[in-house]
Every structure is written in C-alpha cells, then in structure tokens.
Amino acid sequence: MKRQDAIRNIFPALNEITSKFTLPKKNHQKEYLVNGELRKWTGPFQDVLSPVYLNNNGINEPVLIGSYPLLTEKEAMDALDAAVRAYDHGRGKWPTMPVEQRISCMEEFIFRMNEKKDEIVKILMLEIAKSWQDADKEVTRTIEYIRDTIGALKELDRNSSRFTIEQGIIGQIRRAPLGVVLCMGPYNYPLNETFTTVIPALIMGNTVIFKPPKLGVLLHEPLLEAFRDSFPPGVVNTVYGDGPTVVGPLMKSGKIDALAFIGSSRVADILKKQHPKPHRMRSILGLEAKNAAIILKDADLENIVKEVVLGALSYNGQRCTALKLIFIHQDISDVFLSKLTDEISQLKFGMPWDKDVKITPLPEIGMVNYQVELIHDAVQKGAKIINPDGGTKNQTFIYPAVLFPVKENMRIFHEEQFGPVIPVVPYKNIREPLEFIVKSDFGQQVSIFGENEDQIARLLDPLVNQVCRVNLNSQCQRGPDTFPFTGRKDSAEGTLSVSDALRVFTIRTLVAAKDTEMNKKILKKIMREHKSSFLSTDYIL
Ligand code: G3H
What we know:
Helix content: 25-40%
Bound molecules: glyceraldehyde-3-phosphate
Number of strands: 25
Strand content: 15-25%
Mean pLDDT: 96
C-alpha cells in the first residue's frame, strides 16, 4: 500500500483491534485516595478519549476509554490536610518510622504493582498512544527504579550509621524528610516521571500528594489500592482535575514543603509564585529542552544516522531529551539528508500495539496542529520538507517531517516541537551551533557526532558548562537512571537520579554532643536500647 493510503487508513475498525488483543475494560474511575481511604466521588467526571481513533464505517472517531473525577478545591484541601496530619510536623508515624520498615512498605508496594503491570501497560498505551513496547519499557523501568531506590537508600543509611567525632564534638548526621511534597508528572512519561519523584519523596519519610498529568490519569487507577494498603493513612493522597482549581489552593496554603514538577517553566513559575513563602519550598523541576545534535564534518554518517533518528523520533519525538535541532556541516549535508530520509522511510508507523511500530498517533489533536504550524512557518520562510510524505496528517497522526535548511528566523529553531518534526540546520563554522547553545533559553543536553578527538575535546570543555550532559556519538537521554539528570537555565532545577533524588527530598540534620562521659553514656544507652530511629548505628543489610 502506498504510504499516503496507509496514513489515510491508519485507524482500524473495532473488530481489527479485538482480533489482536483484548481491550481493557472501560476505566470509569469513581474514587480518589485521601487519608488512606478510597473516597467515592459523586461530582462531575472528565471523559478520557483515546488518541487512537477507530474507523467507524469510514469515519475516524475518538474512542471513550474511561473517565476520572474532576475534584474541586475542597477535595484538594482534604488531601492536603491528610498529608499534613500524616506528617504531623515530622512527628507522624511515617516520618519517624525506622528506615527498614519504610523499605518493607515499599517492597509490598512493588509486589502489588507487579501484579498490575499488564493492565497499566495497556491503559498507558491507549491513553497516550505510546507503543506497547515503550509502554512496557516504561512500567518495567519504573519498577526497577523503585528497586534501585531501595538499594540506594540502604547504602545511604549504612553510610550514615556511624558517629563522627570532630573538635571534641560527637555527631550523627542523617538525611531527614522535608514535609509535604506535591508531585506532578508529565504526559509523555506519566508513570515513570511521576514515580521518579513520588517514590524517593515517600521512602525518605515525606508525605505526598500527587496529581497525574491531564493526559495519563487512568493508568494510575490500578495502583490506588496498592498505595492505600502499603502505606499508613495520609502518606499518599491523589488529586485530579483542573490545575488552577485543585493545585492553586494547595500552593496558596503555604503548606507544600517541596514541589516536584515536570512540565513547562511557565506553569512552574506560576506555581512557585503562588506559595506565600517561596523560600520555604524546595523545588525540583524538570522543564523544557531544545537539545541539539552537532554533526561534525568527519562524522561516520553511515553509523550515526540511526542514532540521530532514534534521538529525534523515539516516542514520536515526545521526550524532553529528544534531539530537537540537528546541526550538520554544510559539506556533508546532502549525504546526511539522503541517509536520514532513507532511515525515516524504513520506520514502521501505525497503531501502538503493532509489532515494532515506531511512529504512532500523538496524544491530542492540538499537538498535531502545533507541528503543522511549525512546519508551515518554516516552509514560508524558505525551508523545504525533504522526506516524501513528511507532515502528512490524519487526525491525531502526523508522519515525520524533515525540514531543511532551517534558519534562525524560523519558529522551529527556538521552539520545542515535542513531536516528529526534525529541523536540520546547515553550518559552516562550528561557532554557529555553539552560539545557538549559548543563546538558547535551555540547557539540558547536547549530542556531538564525529571522530576527530582533537575537535571533540575542544568542544567538550565549553559545552559541559552550557548543558548538563554531553553525549558522544549517542543520542541525548536520561538513562541510565543512576546517572544525574538535570539541566541549566530554563531546563531544570535540582538533580534527579536514583541516589540524587534521595538527597533532593531531604535535608541533612544531626544530633551533636560534646564528648563528655555523661553524653557518651546517654548516647550509648539510647542506641543499645533502640530508643531512637535516628540515633542508631544499626546496619541495614
Ligand atoms: O521526557 C523526558 C524523559 O525523562 C526522557 O527520558 O531519555 O530515558 O527517554 P529518556
């Protein structure tokens, strides 16, 4: 079938889907988790339509896959009260619980989460049109992240299970929780990115309110009972609904001690400003990025094109780490473009459950329209769509488009497309891509492709001071999750990784005493009789 026809017929009829796999039951979520109870909601609901349309006698229509509660300020404040009570100024059961017991709660949660894995993968796939393969990877990676977090906490705890004696003072230094943490994840990794903040915040003794992103809510529902049963009441609470309605009042209350938000810097700024005492609130933010690939004149195009495509188009380019601007040396641009378009034409596109599919619909029709807007703007200003059928759309689907030559006056040069459009900028002098990076509002990562170690070395030193990860002949990415993930300028605040996350949701605190006989006697007695969870030299094995 010609590609244009395949795009026209991309959406299946219901019986074509059901012949391939069983659709999950419609997920009408009627409850929300507050204070250890799944409370019934009787107010209005938000319908969830899958971006995977169905062909109903020649008409492509969105499909209803469920609904979730549209809570109000009152329920949000109930969640806040529950989290504040469970924390109880650091005196609650959870923040004072020995680390080993908190780990047991988390292990119980992992066990329960594993049981729900297949259900979560299916909903994730239908809710945001992520391929089955990537959805499965997201859930597996998240479970591994929780396991690694437990491992990192054991190590942290072992390192803190000792006394330091300095200048006649005996001290035990540990990391203590911050209080109530509000976690808000993004739609592109609604499970993984939400949990890379929720899990470390929890395990370090904070209490949590989490609000799933607007797209990517239903996949959390199978976990509500596991949250309820694995942790003491009020330790995990959920809110759903319109951001300004439910999140605004939480921030204005001044009772949020840490905000973990992955999304746009515009929204992050609004949220931070709503807090009456912003200096009291720790912010952990993952924001926009416009990661560039710089392809040097000597790059081995044969081998790098696959990596560039992976970097630009995995999950349709909807990754904060995606390569969003490709700088190619002008002398090799023709060869590069021909290899790039060849590679793209090999990518399988279709429905998220299709085996080995790489390009799938976007989660909302508005996102397709935004890609089209950026393409039109670039074309009007002189760029061409280089690849056959690039930018062809059908409802929520848009076929990848390679734009060339992209120039500074085009919107796509600056704006984060977050979609399957690959802008390629020819350059003559290496100063041109460097200048882009210096002037850019973003500073997450960059990829350099080339073989000459002298030239690469000359680039590394200025680039590490502009961004937070320089990738060599590899795409930009967050993983492995033990590596630090952060950014400069408008791209991030705070650093996340399995071990860094344990640090960002805590503060160092210590017990100190002058090295006197009386003090030593008191300390020994407390430890020998296990009178304190904090003051202890017990090792977790
Ligand atoms: O959207 C941002 C994600 O954290 C990217 O993660 O690079 O592993 O796909 P990834």
